[in-house]
From TrEMBL:
GO terms for biological process: cysteinyl-tRNA aminoacylation. This is Cysteine--tRNA ligase. Zn(2+) binds at residues 28, 212, 237, 241. It comes from Polynucleobacter arcticus. GO terms for cellular component: cytosol. It catalyses: tRNA(Cys) + L-cysteine + ATP = L-cysteinyl-tRNA(Cys) + AMP + diphosphate. Its main location: cytoplasm. InterPro entries: Cys-tRNA-ligase (IPR015803), Cys-tRNA-synt_Ia_DALR (IPR015273), Cys-tRNA/MSH_ligase (IPR024909), Rossmann-like_a/b/a_fold (IPR014729), tRNA-synt_1_cat_dom (IPR032678), tRNAsynth_Ia_anticodon-bd (IPR009080).
Amino acid sequence: MLQIYNTLSRSKQAFKPIEPGKVKMYVCGMTVYDFCHIGHARVMIVFDMVVRWLRASGYEVVYVRNITDIDDKIINRAVENGEPISALTQRFIDAMHFDSDELGLIHPDHEPRATDYIAQMQGIIGRLVDKELAYQGEDADVNFAVRLFPGYGHLSGKSLDELNAGERVAVGGGKRDPLDFVLWKSAKPEEPADTRWKSPWGDGRPGWHIECSAMSCDLLGEHFDIHGGGADLQFPHHENEIAQSEGALYGQDHKASDAPFVNYWMHNGHIRVNEEKMSKSLGNFFLIRDVLKSFDPEVLRFFMLRAHYRSPINYSDAQLEEARAGLVRLYTALAQVPASNQPIDPHAVWAKRFTDAMNDDFNTPEAIATLFDLASEVNRAQGEEKAQLAATLKQLAGTFNFLQRDPTHFLQAGSRGSVEGLSADQIEEQIAARVSAKLAKDFAKADLIRRELIEQGVVLEDKPGGITEWRRS
C-alpha cells in the first residue's frame, strides 16, 4: 500500500483516497511575471512523478495546478514595462508551457488562472466575514483574524506566539494583529485599472492566499485528497489556506482534529546552488531554458528524481554531468538489445522492488537504484533473458518517462549547445580511418585515433563482425 509523508501529521500514512480508485490533487503553481527557474522545475518534475505513479498504480487522477496571474510583483513588472497585465502574464504562461513541454512533463488536467475565480474568492471572503473570522480594516483591506481560528499553526507545528506575519506584502495599518493576513486588497489610486475588481468591500483585488482556496474547492470540492507545493509554501501560504478554507466551511469552532480541508499535504525540498541558497542577488539564479541550452531535459529530470522529493538538493553543473553519466549507463545497457515492448510481470522481483520503493513515499532514489542494478543484470545476461530484462528496464523507467528514446541517438547526442567537439560525420570519418589503419596493420595509428577520440569525449566500442559503435562520454 502506498505510504505518503503527510506534513500535517509529520508522519508517513497509508494513502486512502476519499473516493476509492480516484485521487484529487492540487499543486500550487507559478506566479507568472518572469521565466521559470530550476526551483519551479523541481515542483513541476516532482508532482509530475507523483501523478505518473498514481496513474501507474491504477488510480484515476484529477491533477490541478494553478496560475497566479494577479499579484504585486506582476503589477510592478507590468507598470515597469508599460504593458497590460494580461499581455505580461500571457507571455510568461506561454513560456512556462514551453519549458514544461521541453522537460517532457504531463499537462495538468486543469490549470485555473486566479483572475477567472474572482467571484469564488469573494464568496469565500463573504462567508468568513459573516462568521466573524474576517474584518475590514481602516485601510479598507479585508483581513483574516488568525487568533480567532483555533487550528492555526497545526501545519507548521508552531504556536501563535512563535509565528511571524510572513506575508508577501508589508503589514498594513488596518490589521488588528500582525499575524492577520489579507483576503481582499483595496485598490490604490495609482494602480492600473486592470488590477481592480468591484466587491462588497470596495474596488480591489484578492490577496495571494485566497486564490488557491477558491480554485481548489471549485475544481476538486471542499474536501480533497492531496495538496502539494514547495517547502517554502508550508508557512504562511498553506497554513493560511487551511485557516481560510476550514474557517469558511466550519467557522470558529473548527479544530485541527475535525474534518480537514485536505487529507494529505506534500512538500518538496529546497534547491541550493553550489551549497548556497539560490537567489538573483548571489548571481546563482538559473532559468530552466538556460539550463536546457547545455543539458538534455531528460538529464535535468533524472538529476531531480535521484534525490528524494522531500530532501534538499544541491544544483551544480557537476551534479548534472553526474546525472548524465548515470543515464548513459542505463541507455548503454539498452543499446545492446533490440527494442522490445514485451509485457512485464508486475510480481517479478525487479518490478516488486521498484513498486515497493515507489510505494514508500515515492522513494525515487531507491527506484532508480533498482534501475541501475537491473541494467547490470542486462549487461551480464544473454539471449532471451537479456531481452526480457531489457524490456523490464525500459518499462519500469518509463514510469518516469526515462529511457524511452532510441539509445544510440541519446548516447551520440552529447551535451546540448556545445560548440566544441566533433560532429557525428567527423567521428564516423575517424572511425573509418581507424578501420583502414587496422586493415593495413598500422596498429599504432589505429590506437592513436582511438586516444584522440577519447580526448575529444568520444568512446569507441568494438563489436563482433568488425562493427565499431561510439558514444560521447
